[in-house]
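seq as requested:
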Amino acid sequence: MKELTGRIIFGNGAAAQRFKICRLVMKKYGLVFPPLHFGTINIKLDMPFETPYYGIIIPYHKLDEISCMNKEYWQFIPVDLVNQRKRQGYILRTSLNIHGDRVIELLTEDIATEAEKDKTITVTLTL
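struct tokens:
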């Protein structure tokens, strides 16, 4: 088990819009809305997390126009726990990795009541 700890930071909402466009493709890979929430929670980690090459990988030609233009694939790494609670969730990384290894985007069920800026959050996954 690997624990990733960091603080919530605000994003720009781009993931939510792209998930809505790509939801049918994502469903084919087992990523279903709901229970998953349209959007991600951005977490600035205390320590960098290099993306392992496993999980669900969706190639760019199956996604939206932005992905095709950038040849950007999406990778979803399954998580086991969020703040010590069992939740269906994934860490989203794109092949562009625009945030770098210090920020992860967490896709999970709606935890908006727990998601306050600068709040500490821990994500646990099996590597």
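The CA atoms of residues 65 and 71 lie 10 Å apart.
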